[in-house]
Batch of 2 targets.
Target 1
Amino acid sequence: PFNLRLINNTKMASVAIDLGATSGRVVLGKYTEDGIQMSEIHRFQNNIIKVNGRSYWDLLGLWHEILTGLRKASASGEKIESAGVDTWGVDFVLLGRDGHFLSQPRSYRDSYTCGVPEKFFHKIPKETLYKKTGIQIMDFNTVFQLYAMQQEGNSSLSAADKLLFVPDAITWMLSGNQVCEYTILSTSALMNPETHDFDDDVLSAAGLSRDLFGKIVMPGEIVGMLTDEVAAETGLGKIPVIAVAGHDTGSAVAAVPATDDHFAYLSSGTWSLMGIEVPSPIVTEKSFEMNFTNEGGAEGNIRFLKNITGMWLLERCRAAWEKEGRKYTYPQIVSMMEGVEPFRCFIDPDNPAFANPDDMPTEIREYCSEHGEVPPSGDAEFIRCIFESLALKYRLVLKHLRELSGKDIERLHVIGGGSLNAALDQMIADSLGIPVIAGPAEATTAGNLMAQFVGLGFADSMSGMRKALASDSSLRRFGPVNKEIWDAAYQRFKDITRL
């Protein structure tokens, strides 16, 4: 089903290094006649480290864990053919001329970019920036992070010889080669989506040189071989390091099990990313007003989408509850939610108050009070409020996707960890009024591996592999019910949130 060629040796496998905003893992993937077989061999935390009021990613700590995972891969008995890396978007590492890190990468959740876009718009107007890059305006876009560093007089930036986005930095640590992968670059608001290259006017406004960045590569390109040091330390030998869709959402969307073009996708995790695939960017006055974004797809197409705060809301609530001695599993969370009266209160998941609060439950209570609602009084009510608010926000975004693209959207594919939440998946189907197909949960890793299989010549294209994924028996389908009840809830949601 995959146009397979080199499949006789089932011991052949690739390694996907997948780093999310809260955790990372190393996964072994095989390419067989039965599809992509995956096994997680190492999982680890990804923590934001706060130092003197600044928030950083612990990249060297992540590197230690990656090496541990690669050693486990080498000891697995499989013949490892390649490795590839995907991570979250926008963040980056700065290297000096001697090839050393000048600092740990700042986290996009650092508040140093608050208010910076408005200052940058004196250099290049907001509307012009959107027309040139097609990227929604968010405080943490790479271009605003770099401008914020300039405003700080950041010594690392002034001394930098190269900027590597986080997946490219790890690819460099693996291979010794410095590149700039297309999908991760597309998140930065530095790239023109029509040309797939840097926009000179934006670079100039940001005070940046093209020389700061590596050569642009596409998913499926071989970047280089493991360095001698890494090859020896891990026991993997000199295997190729292949550029995958370095932005984790780009990898996830590549693995949407679609058989035609009449679908939207929802990559559900810490963030919810909801969108469609289009051959060229949609950059209009309306898409600008609604703050939709055009990011690179794994095969050079465009992912037209909206970023929506996702399970971050629940995760921050869980962290607050755990401090108070209450720790819940996901099955417990779903069970708790089902015992609560529906549609008691709603929030806008993307309200700025929810970006990185010290106490998420307190922020949700205050939001509800400010909007004339009775705040949640118990943990179960918070859970129900979050789930219903997300489902209703997705309905609003689907409406906008249809209006902006003119596309006939007949179903929604939910991918990522959120696809395992059957209660939320049913709410989404009820809210949107269209069928929901849930899975694969490991879409990001599958997409990462698919790019490697193309790069190795095991398959002709990622799109061809995607169609075969549609026959996966683990996919779950949810049909819409209770239309009138959800229609009424949607109207209340719009009135309360003033969206």
Note: The first strand starts at residue 12 and ends at 19.
Target 2
Amino acid sequence: DYTKEIAVKKLPDVQVNKFGFRGPEIIKEKLANTYRIFTIGGSSMYSQDSLDDETISYHLQKKFDQYELGVKIEVINAGVNGAWFGTEKEMIKNKLVEFKPDLLLVYDGWNDLRFDVSPNELKENWNAICEIGKKNNFDVIISLQPIAGFGDKTLTKQESEWVKAGKSYSKKPLIESLSSYQHYAKNLSEINTCTKTIDLRNVFDNESETIYSDQGHVYDKGNIIVAKSLYNAIFPI
């Protein structure tokens, strides 16, 4: 039961609906003239340190709501704290397909790296997720998330400390896995089974202020920037 995997941080205005998704209540049956998007990932997508109006999913929904598109866009936050490709794939197969999604937006990388997932294993599972999409008639976009020290952002003093403190689950410095993350990105660019792939490692390169709240989580401005990039990737679809 994936609803039990969500650890809700005690923050004001945190809402989890009856299906275990962070956000307002929804009905399981997709209404007519509705385009349903599920955002998938770990705590960075769940936005564990953010208020409800600061999550990536909230900002993405807000961008769609600005325009009259002739169809209702429904963005549902299916992020789960600690999720990686293994739990994501099972959740997609055993739960999300029942909600008749039109698009799955996968935001991966940090937890997979911390679990020491090999680049080839991750690529195989990204392909598997996209094959599930083809089988069930929904699009899949895979995105590789930014991590402090893994792009070309000029880091602030605090962000540099996050890089030094960042560890894998085997307690080794995560920055030592930089080459593996670069290999993740290379493999992502070679995937052709998905609707689209997007490399977000450098999404904060032009930001001089502190964006990261630790090595992988970001403050509200970071979520806004990520949401804008994801929106630009989604909209042509």
Note: The CA atoms of residues 39 and 77 lie 5 Å apart.
